[in-house]
Specification:
Chain lengths: 243, 233
C-alpha cells in the first residue's frame, strides 16, 4: 500500500507552471466557483463539469491517490446532506429539477467535483508559490499567514495520525473487546496529542516573534499569456450559462 | 548583537515557576548569572526542571522572581521585545519550524533583524550554505531528517544574532558526527548559552560550568564535570 505524506499533495508537475501563481490561483477559483454553482440536473452542465474535470486532471496531473480520495470524501460529505433530501420511498417522479433523487445526485456530483477541482488546483502549487499567489492577489497578509499555518500544521498532524495508525497496527489487539477498548481510546489520545502539539507550537511562535505578516520571497511577473489564460477561463466558465 | 561590558547577559534571582496542575513549584532557582559568551550546562534527570528553567527564562512561563536580560528586567510588558535577544531551540525542532520550506523559515528570522528586503534572500542562502542546508532549501521541514530539522531551527535562531541561546536537549537525536558538528558550531557563537542536556560528555566538551537540577532546585554546581560521571553511574 502506498503511504502518502500530506506534503506530497503539493507541487505536482503542473502543465501551467509557466503562468504566474496569481493567475493559476485566479483560474482555480473561477473554475471552483463554476463547478460549485452549476446545476447538474441539466445534462449540458454535467457534460461541462466532466469535461472541465478531465481537462484539469490531464493538464495539472494531480497525484492519483489524493485526487481519488478527494472525490470520494467530497461525494461522501455531500452525500450525507443529500440523504436529508430523500423522503422515504421516493422515486423518479416530477421534473429533474424537483425530483429529490435527481437533486441528491446533483449534490453528490457537486461535492465530488468541487473537492476534485480544489485538490487538483492546490496540488499545482508549492506552499511557497501559494503564498506568492495569495499576497499577489492582495489577500490580507494575516489571512495568507493563517493559510500557511494551516498547511504546515495539517501536514504535521497528518504525519502524527500516521504514526498513531502505525502504533495501532503494531499493538494489534487480540480480541474484539481489546479492539473496542483501543478504538474508544484513540480519539482521546489523538486529541490530547493535538492539544499538546498546539501548545508547543504556540510557545514556539512566541519565542520566534511570529507576526502574522508574510512576505513572499520572490515577486512574480504577470505577462501577456496570464491575461490570455484568465480571459479563456472566463469564457469557458460562462459557456454553461449561455443558451 | 549589542552587549555592554560588565553587564551580565542573564541574571536570575529567586526564580520560581509553578504549573497550574502541580502543588509544588516546578522550579526554584536562587541565583544564576551568565556572562557574555559563557556556556553553562543545565543537567539533571528527567522531570528535574531543565525545560521549565529555559521556558521561564524566555518569558514563556509565568514566574515570580527576577530575570534580567542584558540588564533589562523581563516582565509581561518587556517579554516580547526581550525575546528578540533570545534564541530558544526546542527539544522537538518540528514545533518551531513554522514555514512550508526551509528557505522561508530561515528568511523569516533574517527579515526580523531588519536588513533591507533585497538582501534577505542572499543572507538566507549564505546561512543555508553554512549549515549545509542549501540542497534542501525548498523542501518542507518535516520531510528532512531530525539532524537537518535541528540545523534548520538553529539557522533560524542564529540568523537573529541573539545575545542568549537557550538550547533544550540539542543532542537528543543526533549521531556522534552530528554532535561534534553541533559542538563546533556552538563554540563559534559569541552568545551566552544555557544548554539543557543529559549528555554529560557533550556538556563537558563545550561548557565552562554546570548546574545540576533536582526537583527544580540547583543541588550542585561547578566546573569539574568529572564529578558528574560518578553521579550519572
Amino acid at each position: 500500500m502506498t503511504k502518502y505524506s500530506l506534503m506530497e499533495l503539493w507541487g505536482s508537475t503542473s502543465g501551467l507552471a509557466h503562468l504566474a501563481p496569481e493567475t493559476r490561483l485566479l483560474i482555480g477559483v473561477l473554475l471552483l466557483a463554476s463547478v460549485t454553482a452549476l446545476d447538474y440536473t441539466q445534462r449540458s452542465a454535467t457534460v461541462w463539469g466532466v469535461t472541465t474535470i478531465l481537462a484539469c486532471t490531464l493538464i495539472l496531473r494531480p497525484r492519483r491517490g489524493f485526487a481519488l480520495a478527494a472525490a470520494l470524501v467530497g461525494a461522501a460529505a455531500s452525500g450525507g446532506f443529500a440523504l436529508t433530501l430523500l423522503p422515504a420511498g421516493c422515486g423518479l417522479v416530477g421534473t429533474a429539477a424537483s425530483n429529490p433523487l435527481a437533486r441528491s445526485l446533483d449534490l453528490i456530483l457537486k461535492g465530488a467535483m468541487t473537492a476534485l477541482i480544489a485538490v487538483t488546483w492546490l496540488g499545482s502549487f508549492t506552499p511557497s508559490s501559494l503564498v506568492t499567489a495569495l499576497t499577489g492577489l492582495r489577500v490580507p497578509r494575516w489571512a495568507a499567514a493563517g493559510v500557511v499555518q494551516i498547511i504546515c500544521q495539517a501536514g504535521s498532524l497528518w504525519d502524527e495520525t500516521g504514526r498513531l495508525a502505525t502504533a495501532v497496527r503494531i499493538r494489534r489487539p487480540g480480541c474484539r473487546r481489546e479492539s473496542l477498548l483501543l478504538l474508544s481510546a484513540l480519539p482521546q489520545t489523538w486529541l490530547l496529542r493535538l492539544a499538546a502539539k498546539a501548545e508547543r507550537v504556540h510557545l514556539a511562535m512566541l519565542a520566534r516573534g511570529w507576526e502574522a505578516d508574510l512576505h513572499p520571497l520572490q515577486e512574480s511577473q504577470i505577462r501577456f499569456q496570464d491575461y490570455v489564460h484568465v480571459a479563456l477561463t472566463i469564457f469557458w466558465c460562462t459557456l454553461p450559462w449561455l443558451r | 548583537m549589542e552587549t555592554k561590558p560588565d553587564v551580565a547577559t542573564l541574571e536570575v534571582e529567586n526564580l520560581t515557576a509553578q504549573y497550574p496542575d502541580l502543588r509544588r513549584p516546578a522550579l526554584k532557582v536562587r541565583s544564576l548569572i551568565l556572562r557574555p559568551g559563557e556556556r553553562t550546562a543545565v543537567l539533571g534527570w528527567n522531570g528535574a526542571g531543565k525545560t521549565t528553567l529555559l521556558l521561564a527564562v524566555a518569558g514563556l512561563l509565568p514566574f515570580s522572581g527576577t530575570v534580567r536580560l542584558d540588564g533589562q528586567p523581563l516582565t509581561k510588558k518587556t517579554a516580547a521585545a526581550l525575546r528578540r535577544k533570545i534564541g530558544l531551540l526546542f527539544a522537538v525542532p518540528d514545533d518551531q519550524l513554522l514555514f512550508p520550506s526551509v528557505r522561508e523559515d530561515v528568511a523569516f528570522s533574517v527579515r526580523q533583524t531588519g536588513v533591507p528586503s533585497e538582501t534577505v534572500e542572499s543572507i538566507t542562502m549564505e546561512l543555508l550554505r553554512s549549515f549545509e542546508l542549501e540542497a534542501c532549501a525548498d523542501r518542507p521541514p518535516f520531510q528532512l531528517s531530525h539532524g537537518q530539522r535541528q540545523r534548520t531551527a538553529l539557522a533560524g535562531l542564529l540568523a537573529r544574532r541573539p545575545s542568549l541561546l537557550l538550547l533544550d536537549e540539542p543532542t537528543g537525536h543526533l549521531d556522534p558526527p552530528g554532535r561534534k558538528e553541533l559542538r563546533t558550531l556552538l563554540r563559534r557563537q559569541s552568545s551566552a548559552q544555557l544548554i539543557a542536556t543529559h549528555d554529560v560528555g557533550f556538556a563537558a566538551a563545550l561548557c565552562q560550568r554546570y548546574l545540576w537540577l533536582e526537583e527544580g532546585r540547583v543541588t550542585r554546581e561547578g566546573t569539574d564535570f568529572s564529578e558528574l560521571t560518578l553521579l550519572m553511574d
